[in-house]
Amino acid sequence: MATEPTRSRLDRILRPGPTQDHAPLPASGRAGRNLPAAVTTAVVLLGALAGGLVYWTPGFVALVVILCLMATWELGGAFARTGTSVTMPPLYVGTVGILVSAWTMGPEAMLVALFLTVFVIIAWRLMEGRGASTITDVITSVFCAVYVPFLAAFVLLMRSESGSAAVVGVYVAVTVSNDIGGWAAGVLFGKHPMSPRISPHKSWEGFAGSVLMCCAVGVAGVLLLGGQWWWGLVAGVAASVVGTVGDLTESAIKRETGLKDMSNLLPGHGGVLDRMDSLLMTAPVLYLVLRAALGW
């Protein structure tokens, strides 16, 4: 059996994939994950996030940029399994540009950076002039630009426009509650799958648990920030619905590309995008809800 030629690290970054499935760590419960490893990884990530938000804001921005670059690399490797070539160099540069523009100059600059990223992606792929899948490659690359850095940029807008680390903390807490509430209710009561073909482990009972926990955390968070309690219900319902769509979107990508996890970069969790899927989708929605609730 022929083996794949040895590739340099730079080549694997610029032309990732096709991603190979890796054997997961031994599961420690019904959730199908190694809970000690998953909890340890989560604590490290949340610690880095909290440290950057509270003590060194440039570190927070750098963390968001690094995580988004890793997530775009994972998407490039995943789509390579279907024969689609994501134009990684302009996507990497565009990821940094979109996020830095959002942080330093606001939403208008963020939109301009997205346009420039799309333009360069198209021009880059046309100049390569190879293969018959140019349109598919361009559409997929543009999807990656919107799905990861553009959505993540709303997190930086939240921090810069509100001037409060607590606002980002509430956004993270409400979104993470979607996963925790859904996991707990699904493990205890889950019987009716929401979308068996895409994500057989997600149940309507788990979704109900997500809504309840998101609303409870949302009300507590909005009150803590000085807003009216009912905005917490709006934030909770929005986060549970949109976050679940985010989970299913990423599950659909993995199902279409034949992957169990996007990578093995995060022990106990799989890939970076496996943990960012809900956070990405909820970022624009909670940016708008919290902005309206708090009037910044």
Describe the structure.
This protein is an all-alpha fold. Helices cover 74% and strands 3% of the residues. It is built from ten helices and two strands. The protein has helices spanning 9-14, 35-54, 57-80, 88-105, 107-128, 134-162, 165-189, 204-225, 229-257, 272-294, and strands spanning 193-195, 199-203. Helix 3 (57-80) packs antiparallel against helix 6 and helix 4 packs parallel to helix 6 (134-162). The model has no long low-confidence stretch (mean pLDDT 87).
Kindly list the characteristics that best describe this protein:
296 residues; mainly alpha; 10 helices; 2 strands
Parts with pLDDT < 50 across at least 5 consecutive residues: none
How many strands? 2
Query: What form results from the Cα inertia axes?
Result: globular
Order of helices and strands: HHHHHHHEEHHH
Return the structural class. Answer: mainly alpha
Report on the biggest sheet. 2 strands, antiparallel
Average per-residue pLDDT, rounded, comes to: 87
Count of helical stretches: 10
* Oligomer state of the chains in this structure: single chain
Main sheet strand line-up? 1-2
Radius of gyration: 19 Å
The separation of the N and C termini measures: 61 Å
